[in-house]
Amino acid sequence: MSANVNRRSAIKGILAGTAVMGIPPGFSALAMPKNEIETQLGTLKGNINHSVSRWCFDSLDLDTLCIEAKKIGITGIDLVGPASWPTLKKYDLVSTMCNGAEINLVDGFNDLKFHETLVKNYTEMIPLVAKAGYKNLICFSGSRRGKTDEEGWNNCVIGLQKLIPLAEKHNVILVMELLNSKIDHKDYQCDRTSWGVVLAKRLNSENFKLLYDIYHMQIDEGDVIRNIRDNHQYIAHYHTAGVPGRNEIDDTQELNYTAIMKAIAKTGFKGFVGQEFIPKNPDKLASLKQAIAICDI
């Protein structure tokens, strides 16, 4: 058996034994050498539910990703549609953020001309999500294209209100992602926590919430922990990635993910935190394991 295969089969979680080993409460996996991370893996603590975004590891076939994710302690895969759900079920994994009803990231609910298509797509998809036993279905505001905030909010409300009753009936949550408009998604309208929260308040339904992408919101607004604390009731899901670069969440980037995870856990959040970074390390699974180690507070 190769060293890599042996290492992968041995790693299933991290940090559960820190108290027993006398590791201080302020311990951070960011400070650990890679070999230390790998030798201290054990049962995950259960304070954070871990998932991983499919597209970031698309060099692996889905079966392989599922097998390796389960070894690490990940219980869900983000951003897969109905065609992939049978594979997830085969490995007893959850589709933690379903997709497939959206048009794309730029043509969204903030523009009336896309409503007919979006309402049709989501009307068909919501029952499928529920039938599969899943809960979260992603959606997007779309690009601003010169619209004021008020126009964007009003248009989103018009479109989403047509779907909220169906989502409520099936106990599915429509989850709008917060994306940065500075670097990755120029002109995207739902680019600040406050914008998404106003929309959530206007819709006034537990079946509409936000996907708080930590990477994106660090770029566009910062103050991550305060925004999470103040707005956690409107958040259904979290995504991670290192800033700058959208790569590993290790000590090469500026965010303290251990502190952020502690803040999320303190809100009582029971949803999932999805790893959505693009690995630079050729051993992508090693980077994924390290990310789970850092986030498993």
UniProtKB/TrEMBL annotation:
Keywords for this protein: Isomerase, Pyruvate
All residue ranges annotated as the Xylose isomerase-like TIM barrel domain in the record: 94-281
Isomerase recorded as keyword: yes
Name of this protein: Hydroxypyruvate isomerase
Isomerase is among the record's keywords: yes
Biological classification of the source: Bacteria, Pseudomonadati, Bacteroidota, Flavobacteriia, Flavobacteriales
Organism: Flavobacterium sandaracinum
GO molecular function: isomerase activity
